[in-house]
Design brief:
By secondary structure, the chain is mainly α. It is 66% helix and 5% strand.
Length: 543
């Protein structure tokens, strides 16, 4: 056997994921005959996920089907891909005895490197690995540019390969479209997706068109594209992810819950989808459904990098509401251990503050409970205090109110959070749902939302009568008072549109930059259980 593309094969690290000891032994023997010295084996997908999150492998051979498990090889690949935890350099080969077209197509759309059918020979395995390695070598310049954060060059290299129909142009088109979305070059991204769609009508290309439409604010068009895709391919889970995101941004939370429910049904072991499903069910007021999804996500992924500890905060509140002291303390302890491991993470420390307050309330330690609440409130104007922190604070205050623990300033705290985070219809609705059942707090959220809306409308009236500078100054004054990202975004948009008519352009630009530092990374979009930059239906863009 000639490993022309693996001159340093003795340094390669391989991972075999297969429930059958016999299959693992055969595959390991084949790899060692090829010169691969470092071979790790595991029989469980959950163990494989932890290995892949914490170590880098050159080759992964993964069985598709695992008996008595909700997780299969495709779910593992899908989760790793969405969480951006699988380097480009890794060759991922699915090994299975099932040869249906649907599975082959699904694997291809997931940017799988190869697909090997049982029974197979050592020669066929080597051929697949060489073939996959050849593609990575052909696209090497693109991957190097991405790793160097030179996304513009990488996008151009992808476009050149696509235009020339050079080897692997279809794969390059997918990466290039992803890069163009990241660079906000939506026209270029759409051109690539539509060209692929016209050639082969692949579901991921149609989904890419929908993602571009969402990024450009063409929500009605995106909805139509997604509805058609789901009708044609109702088992394509990534389409439900994007549809759910679209529905959340439009404030259609009931529809979004239904969408994420379907996504988690299709992939019952997907950590990210279970979390989104559980979080939306929490806010929608269906506690049993929320608790079921969040408990399953915690059980499957508690030690995974894909797991968002916000799930534990919501789960602890549900257990507190149900009076399940044993389950609550178990969840609280799990969160405390995570916060201890990452003591420098302010987000995790705030999570722990919420459950600490509930723990004290459960034990009737009122003074200590109020101390935790005051510390959370004191940090509410920090740049790293985000939308999630606000909903946690509001839901905590609501639970205190239900126990007849009266806090004189509570309504003011709720309104302050609303003034900062009522940045969209979806955000306002989620804030309201965080305090549902408490009339005073719901009124405070509505008041905060109304104040921001009126401030924006009054400021924009200056622009209508021809005074864009007055518009910007009014928006920045209110934005500085409330730290509301929507007002700051509006001010920047007006300045970009009327740059030549604004005398104080430099000073106003500096004020906008200062306000952005003060309000932090909080934007005008609402995320659920996913890290920034991760998008459904995308391939990995590292850097």
């Amino acid at each position: 056997m000639t490993w022309r593309l693996y001159p340093d094969v003795n340094k390669c690290r391989a991972l075999i994921i297969d429930a059958s000891p016999t299959s693992r032994s055969i595959l390991a023997g084949m790899l060692r005959e090829m010169g691969v010295v470092h071979v790790t084996q595991t029989s469980r997908v959950a163990d494989a996920r932890r290995l892949l999150e914490n170590r880098t492998f050159d080759i992964v051979l993964c069985d598709y089907h695992f008996d008595n498990s909700l997780i299969n090889g495709q779910t593992l690949l899908d989760d790793l891909r969405r969480a951006q935890l699988l380097p480009y350099s890794t060759v991922f080969v699915m090994v299975t005895g099932e040869a249906s077209y649907a599975m082959v197509a699904e694997a291809a759309e997931a940017a799988l490197d190869s697909y090997l059918l049982k029974p197979h020979s050592a020669t066929s395995l080597e051929h697949r690995l060489l073939q996959a390695r050849h593609r990575k070598k052909a696209l090497h310049d693109i991957f190097v540019a991405i790793e160097a954060n030179d996304f513009a060059r990488a996008a151009q290299l992808c476009s050149d390969r696509f235009e020339q129909r050079a080897p692997y142009w279809l794969y390059a088109a997918r990466i290039g479209a992803e890069l163009n979305i990241r660079l906000s070059r939506h026209d270029d991204a759409r051109r690539l997706y539509e060209a692929v769609q016209a050639t082969r009508a692949l579901p991921w290309a149609r989904l890419g068109v929908a993602r571009v439409e969402v990024e450009r604010g063409q929500l009605r068009e995106a909805s139509r594209t997604l509805e058609a895709l789901i009708t044609d391919d109702p088992a394509y889970a990534d389409a439900y992810d994007v549809m759910g995101r679209l529905q959340v941004e439009q404030g259609e939370l009931t529809a979004a819950l239904k969408t994420y429910r379907q996504a988690s049904t299709l992939t019952p072991a997907s950590i990210s989808r279970l979390q989104k499903h559980g979080m939306l069910a929490f806010y929608a007021g269906t506690p049993a459904e929320a608790q079921g999804a969040l408990e399953r996500a915690a059980r499957i992924g508690a030690n995974s990098k894909m797991f968002d500890h916000q799930s534990l905060v919501l789960l602890a509140q549900l257990q507190f509401d149900a009076g399940d002291r044993k389950a609550f303390r178990r969840t609280h302890e799990q969160l405390a251990q995570a916060a201890q491991r990452r003591s420098d993470d302010p987000r995790l420390q705030r999570y722990l503050g919420v459950t600490e307050a509930l723990c004290c309330l459960m034990d009737r330690q009122i003074g200590q409970c109020l101390g935790h609440v005051e510390r959370l409130v004191d940090g509410a104007d920090r740049p790293d205090f985000d939308f999630e922190s606000a909903t946690n604070l509001l839901s905590l205050l609501t639970r205190l109110q239900r126990t007849e623990l009266q806090l004189p300033m509570a309504s003011d705290w709720v309104r302050q959070s609303a003034r900062r985070f009522c940045v969209s219809r979806a955000a306002s609705e989620l804030l309201r749902l965080s305090v549902q059942g408490c009339a005073d707090f719901e009124a405070a959220v509505r008041a905060g939302h109304s104040e921001i809306t009126q401030a924006a409308e009054q400021a924009m009236s200056h622009s209508v009568i021809g005074s864009p500078q007055a518009t910007i100054q009014a928006l920045l004054a209110k934005g500085g008072e409330t730290l509301n990202a929507k007002l700051i975004d509006l001010a920047e948009a007006v300045m970009q549109r009327h740059a030549q008519r604004i005398d104080e352009h430099a000073s106003l630009a500096e004020r906008i930059a200062q306000l952005r530092q003060r309000h932090g990374t909080t934007g005008t979009r609402v995320g659920l259980g996913s890290a920034p930059g991760r998008a459904a239906g995308s391939v990995t863009i590292r850097g």
